Every structure is written in C-alpha cells, then in structure tokens.
Amino acid sequence: MTNATEQASARYPLEMRVLHWLRAIIILGLIWSGWTMTRLPETTPAATFDLFYPNHKQFGVLVWLLALVHLTLRWRNRAVLPAAPAGLTAWEKALSHLVHRLIIGLTLVVPLLGYAMSSSFTQSDGVPFFVFGHVPELLPKNDKAFAVFDQLHGYAAYLLLGLIV
After folding, report:
1. Which residues pair with residue 29 across a beta bridge?
2. Which of 8, 19, 70, 137 is a plausible cystine mate for 119, CB 3.0–4.6 Å?
C-alpha cells in the first residue's frame, strides 16, 4: 500500500467527519447557551424564555437525532473505520475507546435528560422542534422529578464538556 492510500484508508468517511464537526459545534453552543441562560437575571425574561430556552431545547433534540444518525453511520461503515494509531499503548487505546464511548452515550443521554426535565416541569410550555411543532410530552408533570432531571442534566452536560476537553 502506498503512503497516500494508507492515509486515505486511515480516515473516517466524509459523512462521518462532517457529522462529527456539526455535532461538535452544536454541542459546544448548547453548553454555552445552557450556562448563559441559567445565569441570566430574572429581569430579562424575553431573552431567557423567548430566545434561549426554546432554542436550547430544539437544538438539544437535534443533537439527539444526529447522535442516532451517527450510530447508524458507525454501524454501516464499521468495516472501513480506521484503527487506533499504532503508537498508542494498550492503556491509551483503552482510555481513548472508553472516552469515545462515553461521549457518544452522553450525546444521547444529556438531551434525553433535558427532555425529561422540560416534560416533567409543571410550568413548561413543551419542547419545540423548529418548524415541526412540539415534541410530545410523555412524562407526568412533577416538580420533584423536574428537580432531579435538572441536576442530572447539568451534571451530565458538565461531564460531557470535561470529556471533550
């Protein structure tokens, strides 16, 4: 195999690379917007409740859907996915594999916890999804459950950020 052929075969397929960077940008934007909107004073309800929360929710749904697409593409392309770099030690390969799996899992779990949080909040106006209307709310309204989902969503988002870093 030539060096150019080896380099080409050591890359992820184009659709996976594009999806990776699209998700990365959206996730970092969601972490920033979540951090920002929860720190805005209650005297700015228009910015908080009309801009930040609805967009945070719908982009969270989008990340969840893109994570499902990512898993489908990984499964479909599993025969051509590149191996870990040859220079890594066994523990580096294991840690890399674990962190990668955790990031993939958290891109599914964090939006689901956000959905559960919004769905269970008694004063929630639902979870919008761009021009498609609202995502159906499947959980009963319960502010105690909301508080648990709120904490879990925040911790999981910070864990995701830590793994990204």
Report:
1. none
2. 137
